[in-house]
Amino acid sequence: MEERTIEIKSRNNSKIIIGAIPGHFATNHSHVNYYIDMTKVKTQYRMAKEAAKELAKPYLGSVSIDTIICMEGTDTIAAFLAEELGKQNHSSINSGKDIAVITPETDLNNHMIFRDNMQKYIFGKQMLLLISTASTGVTMTRSVNCLKYYSGQLAGVASIFSAIDNYDGIPVNSIFSANDFSGYETMPLEDCSLCKSGQKLDAIVNSFGYSKI
Fold first, then answer.
1. CATH no. for residue 104?
2. Residue environment code for 14-44, b if the CB has 16+ CB neighbours within 10 A, otherwise e
């Protein structure tokens, strides 16, 4: 499967590179015809720092951010993003701010939760949701519902890759989009054209990676 990997460079920053493997893959919510490999951008600090610079741009001018909620292994990028947003810069509304970076827990029922000691970073705060992939919007909805439960205010959504332009009227700021992948598709499990054509699954995928079938 790896021999089919295509390297995709960001159109705005050639230092940011992800891998794309065409095929037939199952996520928790859908079937997709590409596995998007973000291992390097999520784990290598130089590339993560470049990604943070790109993701920070829309929020430097007029969007106030108190806390970054990092999902799907985006912790390294989130730390650099907080640093970028909080730099001493008179043109940035977040200049000098000490922005919190937190990740929710998942309980035994697969519900996202924040412990009592972490809730002070959410209650009444302006939240930036950072995720690795937005293909169907399910993870986004689940995350936003959790923030609302703890009285956080969604100020923005950022993603390494997104096939979604906006969430509830809020633009989804992403480095890569579906336009970067030839014929990218995400399909409901019950209406997958690849399944109907008899194409076998290559792997099961999630934010941690893939497991071949």
1. 3.40.50.2020
2. eebbbbbbbbbbbbeebbbbbbbbbeebbee
Q: Which stretches of the chain are DSSP H helices?
A: 39-43, 45-56, 75-85, 138-149, 193-196
Give per-residue pLDDT as tens, 5-26: 999 999 999 999 999 999 999 9
In whole angstroms, give the CA distance from residue 164 to residue 178. Answer: 8
Domain that holds residue 55: 2-212
In Å, what is the CA distance from 99 to each residue of 65, 102, 163, 213? Answer: 7, 10, 27, 41
Instruction: Give the count of alpha carbons within 13 A of 169, CB side only.
Output: 2
Contact call for residues 182 and 13 (beta carbons, < 8 A):
no
State the total domains in the chain.
1
**For residues 78 and 75, what is the distance between their CA atoms, to the nearest angstrom?**
5
For 37-50, write each residue's pLDDT tens digit: 999 999 999 999 99
149-193 confidence digits (pLDDT tens)? 999 999 999 999 999 998 888 899 999 999 999 999 999 989 999
